[in-house]
Amino acid sequence: MPRTALYASIVLVLAVTAAVVSFVEGNWLGVVWVLMAGVSSNIAWFHIRKDRIERAARGAGE
């Protein structure tokens, strides 16, 4: 897993946790955490997919 994807996954877990805590406390600021979780999820998937494509290209080029 690329380092950027790992960091984005960590941010994703923390953002989801913060969203749950915010909503349990009745704070609507959790919506911002949900949006941040969505963005970090997209970043993680992008970098994982990019890494898979690069590995496949290196494997096919040999």
Number of helices: 2
Class from helix and strand fractions: mainly alpha
End-to-end separation in angstroms reads: 22 Å
- Average predicted local confidence, pLDDT: 93
- The general outline is rod-shaped
Write structural notes for this entry.
- By secondary structure, the protein is mainly α.
- It has two helices and no strands.
- The chain crosses the membrane at residues 28-48.
- This is Secreted protein.
- Keywords: Membrane, Transmembrane, Transmembrane helix.
Helices and strands in order, then pairings?
Layout: H1 3-24, H2 30-61
Helix pairs in contact: 1-2
Key features of this structure:
0% strand; mainly alpha; 62 residues; 87% helix; rod-shaped
Summary?
This protein is mainly alpha-helical and 62 residues long.
